[in-house]
Amino acid sequence: MRATAQNDFPDLLQTARFLAVSFEAPAALRAQSRRLHAGLFEVCSDPSRSTYKTFGLPRVPARALLGRRTLRFYVRAALRGRIQRGVGSDVHQMGGDFILDRDGCLCFAYRSREPADRPDARELLGELARWVGARRAQS
After folding, report:
1. What pLDDT digit, counting tens, does each position of 49-84 carry?
2. How many other CB atoms are there within 10 angstroms of residue 98's CB atom?
3. Dihedral sign from CA coordinates of 126, 112, 71, 41
4. Domain limits of the chain?
5. Do the strands 42-45 and 19-22 form a parallel or antiparallel pair, or are they unpaired?
6. Is 137 helix (H, G, I), strand (E, B) or coil?
7. How far is residue 80's CA from residue 94's CA, in Å, rounded to a whole number?
8. Phi and psi angles of residue 108, each rounded to the nearest 5 degrees, phi first
9. CA–CA separation, 20 vs 28, rounded Å?
């Protein structure tokens, strides 16, 4: 994501704050955040999942995890060494990607329907750039 932001949307790194929220324990997040996008995001732990509830992100039943796209995602991740053993992830908890303005108003929402259902980084950064441009035009 850092390369995409630097190459395609260089001013966004100066304009926006990026925050990742996880239900994992703080110790597990520290280890993961060093490996994933170090320095690009602030990483916060939300073990009570209150953020997930606020944004309407459900837990899904096991049958929802058995789709072709999800299985392909996990097989590829395993082959690339991207699945860590011993991390207590809850694969039933769906995630999402959101853009909020300074006042906390929701500008963009993408709620995943399965673990592999995530928007492309360019799509997210494009939404953010569009919002920042509209905000600047209003000023």
Report:
1. 999 999 999 998 888 777 788 788 778 878 887 665
2. 17
3. positive
4. 2-138
5. parallel
6. helix
7. 22
8. -155, 140
9. 14
Alpha-carbon distance 130 to 10, whole Å? Answer: 14
Cβ-based burial of 34 (10 A; exposed 0-12, middle 13-18, buried ≥19): exposed
Quickly tell me which residue has 């995001």 as its tokens: 41
CA dihedral 104, 106, 108, 109 (to 10 degrees): 110
Distance (Å, rounded) from C-alpha 90 to C-alpha 24? 9
DSSP alpha helix (H) spans, 1-139: 2-8, 12-15, 26-35, 50-54, 68-79, 121-138
Rounded to two decimals, the pTM is 0.73
- Contact between residue 114 and residue 93 where contact means Cβ atoms under 8 Å apart: no
